[in-house]
């Protein structure tokens, strides 16, 4: 019988936009909102960015389930491009309690380690705060994620408010 490695999940929040410690935009990196919603694009981004980190939860969803998820008014998607290639993406989800969650965030494998994550997270936090003035912005990450993920969230000004061990 194989023994599973315990997974630690970190919940972080930013209750005030003044806490944001931004990173400057790298040359030739642009970030655009996917205003025209297309669930197949969200599914592709999820696979592209999540594959190295075992993002598998949504891979078995039907087209209808993906469409219901990705094309809701409460979900917005931004994509980072570097020289025409998809460098990463993030999704923001407006919550019923007046907060905004960074639902998914990450870089495409070939762009990890190039200094894009700090700016993309800065952009995500700025976009979240600009969306109907939320009471807070939050995210969760886990020990299966990129080793620099937690540090990036904290470096941008987010604070851990809960830790769970599975």
What is the radius of gyration? 16 Å
The secondary structure category is alpha+beta
CATH topology: Aminopeptidase
Annotated CATH architecture: 3-Layer(aba) Sandwich
Biggest sheet strand line-up? 2-3-4-5-6-1-7
Ranges where pLDDT stays below 50 over 5 or more residues in a row are: none
Shape: globular
Largest sheet, in brief, is: 7 strands, mixed
Provide the domain count: 1
Q: How many extended strands?
A: 7
What is the H-and-E element order? EEHHEEEHEHE
CATH class annotation: Alpha Beta
**Total of helices:** 4
Which percent band covers the strand fraction? Answer: 25-35%
Helical percentage:
10-25%
Determine the mean pLDDT.
95
First-residue to last-residue Cα separation: 18 Å
Looking at CATH, the homologous superfamily is: Gcn5-related N-acetyltransferase (GNAT)
């Amino acid at each position: 019988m194989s023994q599973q490695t315990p997974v630690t999940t970190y919940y972080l929040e930013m209750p005030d936009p003044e806490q944001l410690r931004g990173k400057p935009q790298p040359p030739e990196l642009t970030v655009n909102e996917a205003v025209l919603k297309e669930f197949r694009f969200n599914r592709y981004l999820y696979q592209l960015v999540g594959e190295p980190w075992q993002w598998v939860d949504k891979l078995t969803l039907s087209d209808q389930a993906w469409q219901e998820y990705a094309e809701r008014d409460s979900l917005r998607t931004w994509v980072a491009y570097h020289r025409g290639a998809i460098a990463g993406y993030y999704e923001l989800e407006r919550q019923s309690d007046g907060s905004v969650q960074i639902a998914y965030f990450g870089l495409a494998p070939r762009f990890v380690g190039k200094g894009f994550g700090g700016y993309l997270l800065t952009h995500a936090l700025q976009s979240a705060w600009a969306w109907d003035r939320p009471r807070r912005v939050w995210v969760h990450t886990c020990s299966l994620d990129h080793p620099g993920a937690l540090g990036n969230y904290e470096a941008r000004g987010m604070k851990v408010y809960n830790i769970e061990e599975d």
